[in-house]
Amino acid sequence: MVTTRASTAAPTPSPAGSALEIDPVSKARTITHMNKDHAADMSAILRHHARLSEAQAADAEMLDLDLATMTIRSAAGVQHVALDPPMGTWSDRRTRLADMTIEARAALGLPPPAEGGGAAAVAWYPPQGVGILSFTGVIWYFVSATLVLSGHARPGSGLWQFAKAIHFPGGPETYVWLVRFLLVPMIAIHVAEAVYMARSRLAPAQVPVVSTVWLLWVATTFFEGVTAWQRWDRLVLRKQKKA
Question: Which domains does the chain have, with CATH numbers?
Fold first, then answer.
């Protein structure tokens, strides 16, 4: 009788992400680092490798990484990006992530990541000081414009009484006329200020378009104006120069 004996040699582990080959501490550190400093790079990877649009790839956040797959959540949901070929060892992760970033940015026509890392994460800061007054004033103007255009600025209305209470020059009639007169210039000026913020500050900082941070900066700039640019230069730009 001939018998067959199974080999006692341990099977060669597949590079497809065996948990035994990945140190959980360094994995957590890598994911934290990617989310803190490389959100724009991950958005680029999603746009190139997962064929997402810029809007779909916004707010990229790494959820998991193994030897074969990178799992990223973005505005479009959770995406699983295959590492082709899979990494041979966990120590390859930095080189592979850097290579994927460079490849994605080149394909998208974006500048390569800065020496020593990708674009620093950009935070949003709410209006401060004079900016609060500017923001509140513009909000009030658009509330007034909405009431005027909807026919709610009549004698006896809240807006009418407000104009009387503050002794507006010329009375409520002049207040209503001025609100109508300023509408188009106000919209044009504030749209221009928001566009300038997006092009002169957000784009060079590689903030993904329509990401949460991008939307917050653009929206507050629309209502706040020049003081938002000044806040960016004071808080964000200064932080980047120190980094």
Answer: 21-108 (3.20.180.10), 130-242 (no CATH)
